[in-house]
Amino acid sequence: MFVSLTPILHADLDAFYAAVEQRDDPRLRGRPVIVGGGVVLAASYEAKAFGIRTAMGGARALRLCPHAVVVPPRMSAYSAASKAVFEVFRDTTPLVEGLSIDEAFLDVGGLHRIVGPPELIARRLRERVLDEVGLPITVGVARTKFLAKVASAVAKPDGLLVVPADRELDFLHPLPVQRLWGVGKVTAAKLHDLGIRTVGQVARLDETDLVSILGKAAGRHLHALAHNRDPRPVQAGRRRRSIGSQRALGRTPHDLDAILASLVDGITRRLRNAHRACRTVVLRLRFADFTRATRSHTLIHPTAETGLLLTAARLLLTAALPEIASRGITLLGVSLTNLSDEDTIQLMLPFDDHSPGALDSTLDRLKDRFGSSSVTRAAMLGRDPGISVPLLPD
Questions:
Q1: pLDDT in tens, 181-221
Q2: b vs e for 238-257, b when ≥16 Cβ sit within 10 Å of the residue's Cβ?
Q3: Do 144 and 230 form a contact (C-beta atoms < 8 A)?
């Protein structure tokens, strides 16, 4: 089926949170299910059929589907289900690259002679996840990461799609340009204005034409993907390139500084637990019209200190406040990027009597011993800290 001996599977659980709820409560099966109250964290496919989407306001979702069942999130159940699914992944092949708690790439090239063709491996994988974990999963199979992910998206929900090596472009080129990684609303609008609506039309353009339309990086990137050029291998044990967290907000006013401090406290603790440091702080905003924006600040030296990184995040938030006041805000997030190992942290002169980050280390130990809510900022007393979403290891 494949000329290459390195076929790649992209396995993606379907409506993960909602599927876990339907698995654990038979009364929810076949019914529209919304996970989360004020903001939709996940929706079953029965709910998605009514136009309900993740991050939508809960009131709007219930207007679209008044008979939907709203359930509170159970993050411990989702984390346990994810671990069980990844055990199946790693039992299938040691070459597993997790993308999130509910999706991963698997390199099954070395299994052809032992197990059989990739279609058989993918089918058995889906059967095992359903039998052992009780969840539906969609799998796309192709020779590149990009095409495998596209195949799984096309096959959803609860499907399997194999793209043969001799028909890759026949499958890819009729698809809409939005299937290309990196094509969001803005880029799609630019291409649509020029009459470019399919991946095949992008592929027929010269790279120089795409660069002139979209810029050097985006033009080269999309030109390569439109020809299914994606040489990236599956990287088992690959570490995160960023560590972040976000908080969905309702329409009521919020103390954004307190929420920002809470987010930074959480992600800097994760940063130190992973023995890493960062140089760049990214502030993520989603406005009331659901458009998004990012702001970033890069420090001179890498650090893992909460105080320094919170100061940088506050500067970004302060600069964005006028725009937030005029447009409203429905999500606030922070990411730490430009990561390196913690041994790259530069000691600064003059040396103090106490080591840098001593307070952070003490607070980390207290939280490790007595729980993450044992010590908190005074600004967060009596406030909802938000939902702690399960994540892959940092």
A1: 888 888 999 999 999 999 999 999 999 999 999 999 999 99
A2: eebeebbbbbbbeeeeeebe
A3: yes
Q: Which of 359, 356, 354 is nearest to 342 (CA)?
A: 356
Residue for token pair 């990012």: 294
Token pair 């600069």 in the structure block, residue:
319
Domain architecture of the chain: domains with CATH: 169-227 (1.10.150.20), 243-380 (3.30.1490.100)
What residues form the annotated binding site for Mg(2+)?
Answer: 12, 102
CB 243 within 8 A of CB 339: yes
Which amino acid appears at position 203 of this protein? A
Would you call 74 helix, strand, or coil by DSSP?
A: coil
- Torsion angle of C-alpha atoms 149, 150, 156, 158, degrees rounded to 10: -40
Positions of the chain with pLDDT under 50: 1-5
Token match 């199946």: residue?
88
Residue 338: CA atoms inside 13 Å, Cβ hemisphere, count? 16
The pTM for the full model equals 0.76
Choice among 21, 97, 103, 305 that is catalytic: 103
**103 carries an active-site annotation:** yes
Given this model, what pLDDT does residue 39 score? 82
